UniProtKB/TrEMBL annotation:
Species classification: Eukaryota, Viridiplantae, Streptophyta, Embryophyta, Tracheophyta
PANTHER family to which the protein is assigned, alphabetical: MULTI-COPPER OXIDASE, MULTI-COPPER OXIDASE-LIKE PROTEIN
Family affiliation: Belongs to the multicopper oxidase family.
CDD domains, alphabetized: CuRO_1_AAO_like_1 (cd13846)
Keywords, alphabetical: Glycoprotein, Signal
InterPro entries linked to this entry: Cu-oxidase-like_N, Cu-oxidase_2nd, Cu-oxidase_C, Cu-oxidase_fam, Cupredoxin, CuRO_1_AAO-like
Superkingdom to which the source organism belongs: Eukaryota
Signal sequence range: 1-22
Protein name as annotated: L-ascorbate oxidase homolog
An annotated Gene Ontology molecular function: copper ion binding
Domain Plastocyanin-like: 33-146, 159-295, 376-445
């Protein structure tokens, strides 16, 4: 017996250590959100900074990491951050939008606890309240594959995040007042790349090497086109899915989208334009940055390459050309083509139609005729504490009604683990981007 007891203790300790070491890694961040001076167009503006930075700090994680972010709100109004592309599995209260999160009051803090479970890819975060996004407060978020998971391309020599989008010289409070008064937002004043408009930033590369560019459209109103003078781009990933590796001269990126491309520095050693311009606008806004070869023998020269402007056939062909790489691994060892999602029967079809009705003399925006108005209590709390009278399930139809627009705290009911087909319809004369917060979906047609 004297021999067995130490062995039992030893085995117990080994088992305990194994359990502890088997937990997914944690990454901790502490952020302070403040106002500060920024100069996107060379003119002082009030921006929203995170730890004094605009754009905010880059979050770099690995599949299954636990990401803990303690956010202190030092603004003079409530604040929330949403994590574009991060799946929320039964923890929607971490998603950072008003319906599920209590806003962080001025002078207070909230700790987000996220897990990028079974995810890879390129994303971004942004403030979701009060048009704060028009003042900054956004940043990049990437999820790398675990070391044992094969990736369908060689490791790049560098990894760049590009956060591009339209920008206004008016403050977010001025823009918010325009909307609150029932008017449309004006045309943007320009385009910025990583907070820079009139003062180009530089991305330095070594000749002959290949680099990954993660490009997100973080703007408010406008689709953009991205291109690099004299260089081809190989598309390898779109928001967490490895794609067929098609080659493009330029890529359209709509609001909220994130694309990942490989670029090889295979041209003569000099500097080249990186160009972002607006799409589907009568006036084309353009901003440039610089791709700088470390052994450059000359500065940028000649006109920057022109891109598509109002043409609609080309972007449709681009969308049709983007396909998932079924023979590549995703976040797990099994191939993306073995997930068999297409064999799951859908239990419900929802058709969502956007519109822009005038309600009570003001311009509003609606889905299936309902223009959402928030309740005083976040809906997640109202549901949890069973507070009556704030909303009712089914207060928005599964299909377009064809009726006049009206105001409602609209909530659509759904059952856990339902596999739902959603059809988007846009009868308006403007391009629309749709975002389903906290969820993952496949475009099938």
């Amino acid at each position: 017996m004297g021999y067995l007891k130490p062995c039992s203790v030893f085995l117990l300790l080994v088992f305990f250590v194994a359990c502890v070491s088997g937990e997914d890694p944690y990454r901790f961040y502490t952020w302070n959100v403040t106002y500060g001076d920024i100069y996107p167009f060379g003119i002082q503006q009030q921006g929203i900074l995170i730890n004094g930075q605009f754009p905010g700090p880059q979050i770099e994680s690995v599949t299954n990491d636990n990401v803990i972010i303690n956010v202190f709100n030092s603004l003079d109004e409530p604040f929330l951050i949403s994590w574009n592309g991060v799946l929320q599995r039964r923890n929607s209260w971490q998603d950072g939008v008003y319906g599920t999160n209590c806003p962080i009051p001025p002078g207070q803090n909230f700790t987000y606890a996220l897990q990028v479970k079974n995810q890879i890819g390129s994303y971004f975060y942004f403030p979701s309240l009060a048009l704060h996004k028009a003042a900054g407060g956004y940043g990049g978020l990437s999820v790398a594959s675990r070391p044992m998971i094969p990736v369908p391309f060689d490791p790049p020599s560098g990894d760049f995040t590009i956060l591009a989008g339209d920008w206004y010289q008016k403050s977010h409070t001025e823009l918010r007042a325009i909307l609150d008064n029932g008017n449309n937002l004006p045309f943007p004043d320009g385009i910025i790349i990583n907070g820079h408009g009139s003062n180009p930033i530089t991305f330095t590369v070594d000749q002959g090497k290949t680099y990954r560019f993660r490009i997100s459209n973080v703007g408010l109103t406008t689709s953009i086109n991205f291109r690099i003078q004299g260089h081809k781009m190989k598309l390898v990933e779109v928001e967490g899915t490895h794609t067929l590796q098609n080659i493009y001269d330029s890529i359209d990126i709509h609001l909220g989208q994130s694309y990942s491309v490989l670029v090889t520095a295979d041209q003569p050693p000099q500097d080249y334009y990186i160009v972002v311009s607006t799409r589907f606008t009568s006036k084309v806004l353009t901003v440039v940055s610089i791709l700088h070869y470390r052994n450059s023998e000359g500065t940028v020269s000649g006109p920057f390459p022109l891109g598509p402007t109002i043409d609609t056939e080309w972007p449709i062909e681009q969308v049709r050309s983007i396909r998932g790489n079924l023979t590549a691994s995703g976040p797990r060892p099994n191939l993306q083509g073995t997930y068999k999602y297409g064999m799951i029967n859908t239990t419900r079809t929802i058709t969502l139609q956007n519109s822009a009705p005038i309600i009570n003399g003001k311009q509003r925006y609606a889905i299936n005729s309902v223009s959402f108005i928030p309740s005083d209590t976040p809906l997640k709390l109202a549901d949890y504490f069973k507070i009556q009278g704030l909303f009712s399930l089914g207060s928005i139809s599964d299909n377009p009604t064809g009726g006049d627009g009206y105001l409602q705290t609209s909530v659509m009911a759904a059952d856990y683990r339902d596999y739902v087909e959603i059809v988007f319809q846009n009868p308006e004369d403007t391009l629309q981007s749709w975002h389903i917060d906290g969820h993952f979906f496949f475009v099938v047609g």
